[in-house]
Design a protein that fits this description.
Length: about 450
Amino acid sequence: MECVNFNNLPLSVIQPSYKAYEVDTLVEPRVPRMAQLLFKAEEKKLRAALGRLAEYDDAGASTELRGALAIAPNCPEAFALVGMLELREGHFSEAVKQLPAARKVEAQTGVLVRRLMPTFRILLRISRFQFFAVYPDYYGVSMMLAVALWKAGESGEALRVLRELLNLVSWRDEMRVLAGEIHCAAGDFAAARDVLSVADRPSRDDLDVTAHILRALAEMGCGDYHRAAIALRNDAVYIKERNPYLTTLAKFIYSHALERDGLPVLALRESCGLRLRRVLNPDVRNYIRWREAKLKREIQNLSGDRLQEASEFKWVMSGEKVAEQSVVDVLPPEQRGLRRVYSAPPKTDHERMRRLDEMFRETREYARAADGEDAEDEEQDAEPVQGFDTSRVIDWSISRAGENENCFYDFRGMRKPPDALTNGEKRLKKIEEAAAVGGGILLLLLFLKACF
């Protein structure tokens, strides 16, 4: 697996989970129109910038925001949105300059943005395999800053920002995933493994699967391929498939972990179950076929106890309780889509190999049928490509389509607007209070005049 470079999966196939409107929807701001007329000049510029963003006019929004900063150099909302736009364009160093100013006032960060556009949402890449929805508040700006620092080559500062957040909100799953990615990118696999230790729990969503994938990569980086396989076992074998691209990637890594753990039979079974159309890079699809042929030849050279050992996976479930799984006795059809069930265990190595060959063939056919593939789309027993170079690390990737995708925005969030008042609302409230007092005095004078 060391010959495969796990580049960013594109947003088009790894869409974040969220509760949102079916189409982009601009919710009318809850700020009274009269209050908006009383906005300060920089607030009017910010409102104009949000109007530009609603039209996905980044250049126009940037012009309005810089105009707001020229009027009020300490406007945190403008800094937050400028930093977002710089991150979106891949200008990481510039984003690092802008975003810290948006974190100065924790409670007030992004209040005006969220009042004017309650559904405004930012999709932030926190991992090669995951986007996450954040909002223009202190937490969202801090996550953007951590990503910008990491991309700008300042991993230590990025982790410092996450530690600051940890003191405020405790660990959240997306924080763990981001910290794990930063540690893995720096080659500190032991630290990545520690921060992702929560990945031992069962998967609930795509973010959990992402955490398990990173945990497995960290375990491999530490040389513990057995623990890597355990980290991905539930995601690869038992989990109900949510995102087929993400689960295919989990199974692909799981298969490699099994191979490096000395379990070629299990590794081949998992590889045969891959849906190759979900592997975005055709070079990697060819590599998978080459690797399966290599594993088959390796298995054919096994016999007796060694064949049995290569077919079993020992997995500590809880405490001292240990479970063993064997694929020499073919699994029931409801587990893997297989059609045959044998009543007696195999008595000879030849019989074991015949059953294994049938199982691998049926597993591949089942995966192909589930993905709607035709028989001619697969070369099940393809021989290794002559001269296949597995050392071309730089030329390999799962996908390069998402390398430049770091930050997006849309208007499908369902965020409750903050209760804090904007300056325009405060001014309007003072005017209303003054008018009420003046009206009361006038009524009192008229009453006195009528009485006397």
